[in-house]
Request: fold
Amino acid sequence: MNVFITGGCGFIGSHLAERLVANGDRVTVLDDLSTGSMDNVSHLVGRPGFQYRIGSALDRPLVSELVDSADVTVHLAAAVGVRLIVENPVHTIETNVGATEAVLAAAAKKQKLVVVASTSEVYGKSTRVPFREDHDLQLGPTSHSRWAYACSKALDEWLSLAYAHEKGVPVIVVRFFNTVGPRQTGRYGMVLPNFARQALRNEPITVYGSGDQSRCFGHVRDAVEGLLRLVQTPTAINEVFNIGSTEETTIRQLAERVRVEAGSTSEIVTVPYAEAYAAGFEDMLRRVPDVSKLEGATGFRPRTPLDEIVRDVVADQRTRLAGETPMRGRPAAAAS
Ligand code: UDP
Reply:
């Protein structure tokens, strides 16, 4: 298989590229290195079948060329991370919608299969847990830039399904729930690498809000497995799938687990949302996927236990911290 990955130097993209190269597939990744990093794929450079291009997924001629030369495009390039989104809503909306449009328009020329990455954020404030793909979405007001991310990804989904129905482009939409693992940086606010880093430095572990909010953390290896199984499943075409773990934890429990795993003396502190993000920030209390659609279609569901995930992430952050030069004050490119 010849696969084109937008955002291929990012966290999920680099794991996907690595898996495909190991399978003997041909992979071309495109990344503008805004949140991705060459460090994530440096071990793949020079391996048979692996190519990379540094450029933007908004560059239509480039995207068109790369979509044309692949069998499948996996579109992961996006503005990600809640902090980035709250701080840069214009960039978020323009990147997320513009890049998806560029990929779909290119795919329409020769009816190439596109996997479009979406997010559990699209369920918004819904309290109807677990979330199923056919549930209503419940977003907050446009005056809160936090919802710009969810809305831009929901529009990406609509655009994908519109291209499918109107222009015959085969698409698969995947809604990733909280996906974590080695190589994820805490720089954009993601909780698990942040906690691991704080614990390893014996600094306060910052739980935002009450810490009673819960999430289900899935291993990036499982996210990649789910995505690749869907690509091989003809009935997945023109459908939307949740991909995530169903093992739920509160954020406070997560902080405690990380502290134990890191052997840390860190204090666990709470930080008001207004301080952590912006005044009026709305968080979701619970976010749990229903993955029966994924399992029904592919026979697979993410099962890596949270203990193993926490172990992997703490070990990864430990390695990164050991590789950093304290004098320079700033961590190595892929860490935060
Ligand atoms: N969070 C936290 N401390 C941090 C970073 C995040 O308590 O240092 C919380 C955040 O408010 C949210 C949860 O952890 O309730 C998950 O945050 P993340 O940004 O990883 O993903 P989200 O679920 O918001 O997409």
